[in-house]
Amino acid sequence: MKGIENVKPEYQEEYERLEAELERFYGIYVEKYTNIDYLEYELDMYNLKDAQRKKKAEAVIDRLKDEHAKNQKDEIFEEDEDAAG
Description:
Blueprint: H1 2-5, H2 12-84
């Protein structure tokens, strides 16, 4: 009986080799998945900051347009007052 216990099954070496290869591939998979997750997070943060920057720029442009329109209106009223006065 002891002799049978010490004998490896026919495909044991191939099984162990494939198991080691699977471990290596799994390590690569985990590393790539982690990198992708990190890069997606960074992209989300970049897009958020970009959207905030665009919103600020649009607010500045709107404020400048409003000021310009107000200045034009003031100039028109001043010209009307000068002509009437």
